[in-house]
Amino acid sequence: MRDDDHDHPVGDGADPNGEPIIEARNITKSFGGAVAVDGVGLAVGAGEIHGLVGENGAGKSTLMRVLAGIVTPDHGVVSIDGVDLDAGNTRAALDAGIALVHQELSLVPEMTVAENILLGSTPTTSGFIKVSEQRRIAAEALNEIGVSVDLDEPIVRLSVALRQFVEIARAVARKPRVLILDEPTATLTPAETDYLLDMLQRLADRGLAIIYISHRIPEIFRICHRVTVLRDGKLVDNIAIADTTPDAVVDQMVGRELKIEEGQRREALPGSVVLSAEGIEAHRVNGIDLQVRAGEIVGLGGLVGAGRTELVRSIIGADIRSAGDVTITTDKGEARVRTYRSAVNNGLAYVPEERRTDGLALTMSVSDNVALPNRSELSRAGILSRSKIARRAQELAEVVGLRPPQVQREAGEYSGGNQQKIVLAKWLGRKPAVIVLDEPTRGVDVGAKAEIHRLIKELADNGTAVLVVSSDLPELLELSDLIHVVRDGRIAGTLDGSVADEKSVMSLASGEATVSGNGDPDDLVGSAQ
Amino acid sequence: MTAALELGSGESGDNLLARVRTVLGRRTEGRAVALLAVVAVVTAFLEPVVFTSYPVTLGRIALIGLVALGLTAVILMGELDLSVASTLAVSGVVMASIESLPLGIVAALLVGLMIGAANAFFVVAVGINSFIATLGMLFFLRGSAFVLSNEEPVRLANRDAGIAFGKPFLGPLTPRMLLFIGAFIALQVFVTRVRVGREFYAVGGNREAAYDAGIPVTRRIVTGFMISGFVAAMAGVINTLERTAADPTAGSTVLLASFAAAIVGGVLLTGGRGSIFGTLLGATSLGILQVALTLSGVQVDVQNIVIGLVLLLAVITDPNSVRGVVGSVRSLLQGRSRA
């Protein structure tokens, strides 16, 4: 480990062709109190493809946004050919030849391919668009990356993959010296990915400096010359690909010393299958089977964008599924559920990822929120009973540890952790047969997190079948009896929660390993070609 | 070099039919064309007077359409301008209050530009939602129009000019219609061929991307509101000239009709999609419909019911809405079948 390296520029020997083109020194950026990037340096030379890896939230995207002038760093300098750039100036970065291909597609859906490629730099004469010039430049850029698409097609009519390529064409049209790509293959099929990687190698051969961000370790080892590893905003390593191994890189990405266990793993005594999903296919979900037993916590691990949220939403019927059956079995019998409403009627509770938008009515009081799914039992002759609601809400607030437990206050006045407790309280009132939680502790402080973990375990101990999506590895490991790792809308592997560790989950999630606990090796997982 | 990759582009064929289908598939005016065709055919059979007395019909279309054209510039950016009808009234009153006609016209148009700038100020500098900012402006201006006019119509000093203005000028076309056509051509060219106007689509379609691409989003929004204000003031000037007086209540029906014209024309209220041409089609359909209903002796209230229905029909036949409607109906039925 060279953890103290981050005080120095790390261009030494990074570049096969002499001086680096782009150099970032000692970049630091915090948002609010949280340090996203902490004194990181980076240097990339002509013809070099430089990999940048790290877990979700390691600071990769922030660092790239600093390089592109979108984010102003608190400290540090970015320079091109030794000349410092004006910090946080998008225009200056563009003019200096830095082009960023965003992770979220930044195209305008109703404008044409040609217009999007030249967005912001449309050629004009006295205000009028020079259409032929616009088409010529766009065609040239598409030609350079070897993609053919109708220049007059609006983006909205293109496939996701083509949009990604148009996005790259747009960067290439600016004749950049440095090309930065943030997870460009996240939405591509293996064939499209191959094509893109070959294209990047051709661009590098022509002297571009390329910074390539990816969670997919095999891709890094296939095309990159060097790799920089970030963890918790800090530089962990900057090393030539030839001098490292995929295993070593994953180790460095995960690397945190295992925290002293805040919560203990519980003894699971799973009963019969409550939630069963077979052959689920939906948007970004490609044929998944899974089962959750009474009293069992099943974790869904994987990278952001792997399709976990889409999976759970299609299982519970919140999103349309194109194929697959879901059944919920309770003491009342077995029910096939197609819609979210029928799922809820059969004992399902769902705590969504975006609790601010999906899970809570922020301007309503805590007690009204808690009453929402429990209206019938809290009514008297069809009219909601104020006193019943207040009493029930107060009970539940105490169970979940709401602080302060004032149920007449608006839900929006509470902190993120407390809001999550309110969402849990809302569903606890129903004693659900199944509860599905998506990122239950995102943005929640440590204390509240421990309490939420305790509640989830209690639910399971009381016989609820629990399905949890989490990107937080320690959380996933602490809670889950069984971990399914999802990648590209499939289950890449299944691990026993008691023996899994961060490394085994990450390996499966990033496609670096294909081992699978239940003898179900995945065929397509990218081995380094 | 790697062999080209099949990336699944939209359908693009070699034969003419496929070409035509591709080009049509890119347009947003489909529903407006369909509505116009239905309205025109039905009217031609039931109330052919609408077409034989076309000056009346064209005048009606121009009344609804002019404000709608300016409004479209704002809606394309995903903003709203509810103050257009009040702008029309206030600028008319300002114009009539000034002795000299040319000076009055200039003053009225300047008022329109200033109102647009003020709306934009509240939206981009203060950061108020444009619905609320322009709603405030709506009341403020309507009130101002009454105060400035002492609550009664202000007579135009130069009545002869006004009477001359209402006369056909070129063939059957009155100056109002010529100005309407001029505004249509200018705006159509502006949003399709001029970079600033074209970038309205980027501002409305993906504002983040517009920022990242270095488009001066704030300046575009200011431009849009000023266009809307200017065009509304122009409508006010035309109204005042034709009636030889400025009425502080003028344009009270214009606001909803102009929004309806834009929406029927395929302009997406959240921005980024639609066209000036679509708004023209929308205004034409609604204009013909209104005249036809009036000539058939249908009461104004019933006319409003019909227009409301047309608007709802236009919105729910939006391809995106259709998918949504089908989805919700399906899950509703499934939910029922289980319950």
List keywords for this structure.
A: about 525 residues, alpha/beta, Rossmann fold, 4 domains, 17 helices, disordered C terminus, B: ABC transporter involved in vitamin B12 uptake, BtuC, globular
What is the residue-mean pLDDT of chain A, rounded to a whole number?
82
Number of domains of chain A: 4
Which term fits the overall shape of chain B? globular
Overall SS class of chain A: alpha/beta
Strand order of the largest sheet of chain B: 1-2
The name of the CATH topology of the largest domain in chain A is Rossmann fold
Cα separation of the termini of chain A: 28 Å
Oligomer: heterodimer
Helix content of chain A: 25-40%
Ranges of chain A where pLDDT stays below 50 over 5 or more residues in a row are: 1-16, 257-262, 515-529
Q: How many E-type strands of chain A?
A: 24
Major sheet summary line of chain B: 2 strands, antiparallel
Structural write-up:
The complex is a heterodimer of chains A (529) and B (339). Chain A is an alpha/beta fold and 529 residues long. Chain A has four domains: 168 residues, Rossmann fold (3-Layer(aba) Sandwich); 76 residues, no CATH class; 177 residues, P-loop containing nucleotide triphosphate hydrolases (Rossmann fold), CATH 3.40.50.300; 72 residues, no CATH class. In chain A, the strands form six sheets. Chain A has a six-stranded mixed sheet, sandwiched between helices. The two termini of chain A are 28 Å apart. The N terminus and C terminus of chain A are likely disordered. Chain B is mainly α. In chain B, helix 2 packs parallel to helix 14 and helix 9 crosses helix 10. Helix content of chain B is 74%, strand content 1%. Chain B has one domain: ABC transporter involved in vitamin B12 uptake, BtuC, CATH 1.10.3470. Chain B has a two-stranded antiparallel sheet. Chain B starts with 15 loop residues before the first helix and ends with a helix. Chain B is globular and about 60 Å long.
